[in-house]
Amino acid sequence: MSTQDGRIAVDGVGIAWRRFMPPEHAFEHGPAGERPTVVMLHEGLGSITQWRYLPEVLAHRCGLDVVAYDRSGYGRSDPLPQTYADGFMEREAADVLPAVLEQLDVGRPILIGHSDGASIALIAAATGSVSPLGVAVIAPHTFIEDVCIEGIRAIDGQRERVISGLARHHDHPRLAFERWRDAWLTPRFSLWDMRPLLERIDCAVLVLQGDGDQYATDAQVWTITERVRGAEGHLLADCGHVAHCDQPELVAGYLAEFVSACAPAPSLPDSASSASAAMRSGSSNGPK
Predict the structure, then answer these.
(1) What is the Cα 75 distance to its own chain's centre?
(2) Residues 40-68: pLDDT tens digits?
(3) Which residues in the chain belong to E strands, given as ranges?
(4) What's the farthest any 2 CA atoms get from each other in the chain?
(5) Which of 155, 203, 212, 232 has the fewest CB atoms within 10 Å around its CB?
(6) What is each CA distance from 226 to 129, 141, 199, 214, 220, in whole angstroms?
(7) Does residue 1 sit in helix, strand or coil?
(8) Full-model pTM
(9) Residues 6+ apart with CB under 8 A from 237
């Protein structure tokens, strides 16, 4: 497994990215822009590094490149803009994500998003700003629930501890936290609702959510499966909002199976074939 790190500029803002490349690609022929590529969109307080080992696991099992990037103000990306205004997820879906894909020569993305990143991925697929082969979402928000606002108020009461923890992953941890908190706790944001867009999605969709999610109920899962034709949803036992940390092997298995179905390889290398077979049999080499 090899990785490549870099920075691109989107509207003058430096965006950090990382590409995870398996030893051999399942898709060895054709221009890079025509190969399926997994693209990961982090949560509201997330970053590239907070995906932990999941990008490497998916690259290995699926034989595909996996790209993750830090949105502005998060991780190692530039901190501008200083605040989030109404419609920040819509702007990320309409402007930033397509620009990132173009500059990184990703023409056939499979989007994987967590929390805010999940909502951005769904909006991009629904509005046509991106045409993904599939969208897998972990703990998405499609409308605002009381439990979400209550959860954010609770974590705000522990802000100094949270900011201290974020400092391991973010160049501007206080800005990242306060910008996220302020956006979600703005009273008018409680009216945000992307459910009318869901019926426009015409690609494969997978929804994963923990049964102990601190920021949402299972209504988020079933809202998507009811409105998106063919969408598949799973409620994960003994699992909170950050499912890829609480249930890493289970989440990796669901995602690897979904990605492989969206981009079936013409001829998998032996290592990727073995990994896929292990996943189907229920074993896993995922993160511990």
Answers:
(1) 14
(2) 999 999 999 999 999 999 999 999 999 99
(3) 2-10, 13-21, 36-41, 66-69, 108-114, 134-138, 204-210, 232-236
(4) 54
(5) 212
(6) 23, 15, 9, 23, 10
(7) coil
(8) 0.89
(9) 211
Bridge partner residues of 9 (DSSP): 14
Q: Helix, strand or coil for residue 158?
A: coil
Q: What is d(CA 205, CA 6) in angstroms, rounded to the nearest whole number?
A: 29
Distance of alpha carbon 18 from alpha carbon 65, whole angstroms: 10
What pLDDT, in 10s, does the model give residues 143-159? 999 999 999 999 999 99
* Amino acid sitting at position 264: P
- For strand 13-21 and strand 232-236, is the pairing parallel, antiparallel, or unpaired? unpaired
What is the phi/psi pair of residue 133, to 5°? -70, -25
Tokens encoding 60: 């290995």
Residue 250 CA to residue 272 CA, distance in Å, equals: 18
Question: 135: which 2 tokens?
Answer: 């969208």
Q: How far apart are CA 14 and CA 7, in angstroms?
A: 6
Helices 270-281 & 54-62, crossing angle to 10 degrees?
110
Read off the tokens for 196. 């009318």
Which of 23, 52, 18, 24 has its CA nearest to residue 38?
Answer: 18
132 upstream amide cis, omega within 30 of 0: no
Q: Which of 87, 92, 109 is nearest to 13 (CA)?
A: 92
CB 115 within 8 A of CB 44: yes
Amino acid found at 7: R
